Amino acid sequence: xxxxxxxxxxxxxxxxxxxxxxxxxxxxxxxxxxxxxxxxxxxxxxxxxxxxxxxxxxxxxxxxxxxxxxxxxxxxxxxxxxxxxxxxxxxxxxxxxxxxxxxxxxxxxxxxxxxxxxxxxxxxxxxxxxxxxxxxxxxxxxxxxxxxxxxxxxxxxxxxxxxxxxxxxxxxxxxxxxxxxxxxxxxxxxxxxxxxxxxxxxxxxxxxxxxxxxxxxxxxxxxxxxxxxxxxxxxxxxxxxxxxxxxxxxxxxxxxxxxxxxxxxxxxxxxxx
Length: 273
Prior knowledge:
- The protein has one domain.
- The protein is globular, with a radius of gyration of 21 Å.
- The protein is built from eleven helices and six strands.
- α1 (about 10-35) crosses α3 (about 100-110) and α2 (about 65-75) runs antiparallel to α9.
- It is α/β, with parallel strands linked by helices.
- About 40% of the residues lie in helices and about 10% in strands.
- The chain has a four-stranded mixed sheet, with helices on one face. It has a two-stranded antiparallel sheet with strand order 4-5.
- The longest helix has 24 residues, at about 10-35.
């Protein structure tokens, strides 16, 4: 039996592979642009040629603080009391604000720091419920109404009424994930990790320390670091065991298993966080 032989690719092959890779990436960018822009390429991203970073934000993972800090640095951040404006469709700069060739360079060059943050899927789900469904957020009125209808909430003055319970929200999410927006999407999907080679994927649980380290690495000015210390749009913490039981946790784990496995969150973490 002959020995298996291997060799290092030649310089020409490395160059050729790099060209092909960039062409594939450019096609992916153009497809996102032609399709109206996947939210990860526009709404959730923040990118800067001047300061050499690409940030992908994830809803309910300190996304408002990240956007406020970066947009302040870029000169397009709103006053702190109007923090919600960082999420406007015209806010930026986003990845798709740049020509495709520049986007490819930003996503491949070692000179651009690419980073994001993730969160325990159990606590992220609780935060989305508390922020968007547990109170009368007008943007989510239709979703709240559909959950009350599906779960047979009592009729008061001709319409379904009552606060949305966490269990009911999860039940409807499991039955029809497509009616829920990116606050409930898989984090691995939002990060577009099959395309973006991140230098840093930090943890929400250590956000302050890790985000400040990123800003120092980027040589951000003091006013930007100061904004990063502020907490915008917070939800009050609560023990996860107060809303989960073994059966509900197992179903949530099955839905978000890719996040749990990719980012190293334990299946039983709902018991002790």
